[in-house]
């Protein structure tokens, strides 16, 4: 039988990477939420537009892309760059690095795929007809800000997709891409 200390020793580096990814991801969540809230507040106070308002209609349907989806994408892009730079230099700093864009492209692609899943989750949490709609009396569409449904929905979808990002980025972006780059330099 394997002792806990043997397991910890065996997986120490992976646990360190996961913890570092989590801390950086946690600060990235903060970046994401600040940008999301900032975009929401600019829309409200500058453009008199709210999160449920239509940003653009989907042609040929009664559906529209809502403002909160746009805030989500903008916040994702800011947080994605922030997380990549910190993870590249702190979490996955070992080994020979590929050039910035060769690593960032796959990181952005992984994030974008997870982002699509996040948008689906966000939509399910925000759509009043969804079984996952945040309808509890705690969640509101107005004040106070810390009970706003849109902010909680954004936070929840981030928490759901974060583990997917970690695993795929660890295995593909920061390992396979670097290995390919190193192999190409040896040829």
Explain what you see.
- The protein is mostly helical.
- The protein has one domain (about 20-185).
- Helices cover about 70% and strands about 5% of the residues.
- Helix 2 packs antiparallel against helix 3 (about 65-90) and helix 3 runs antiparallel to helix 4.
- The longest helix has about 40 residues, at about 150-185.
- The protein starts with a helix and ends with a helix.
- This is Putative flippase GtrA (Transmembrane translocase of bactoprenol-linked glucose).
- Keywords: Membrane, Transmembrane, Transmembrane helix.
- Pfam families: GtrA_DPMS_TM (PF04138).
End-to-end separation in angstroms reads 44 Å
Uncertain regions: pLDDT < 50 for 5+ in a row?
A: none
Helix content bin: over 70%
Strand order of the largest sheet: 1-2
- Rg to the nearest angstrom? 19 Å
* Global mean pLDDT: 86
Count of DSSP-assigned helices: 5
